[in-house]
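Hi R.,

Here's the chain you asked about this morning:
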Amino acid sequence: MNLKQRSWRGFLAFLILPASLAQAGTLAGGQWQSASCGQMPNYAPFPALDSLPAYNMAVEQLNNQRQAAKTYLDCLSREANADNDAINRNVKQAYSATTAADSRAVSQLQAAEKRFNP
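And the predicted structure, written out as tokens:
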């Protein structure tokens, strides 16, 4: 394996490894889907609100639905932020690796130019 092949393998591992360690959602067709938060909680309709006990049960039901929604949205937020961080890291790493590769190529050409144009 020559130096160029090793460099590309290292570069690809550098890009892929951090993303594979994160709990990542999926992005397809412009739609992001969480990998671990499950489905959005359902706000079920209230039963007949024709008595004080029925009203109290509806208030309790709403509080439970709100707690489930908060848990779900907190999970989405954590996962989306982790995915965004992983994407940003990978893009920055790609820019750095590309810039370094370009600098090495320019240095090689400059060294060759000095040999041919003393």
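The longest strand covers residues 26-28.

Let me know if you need anything else.
M.
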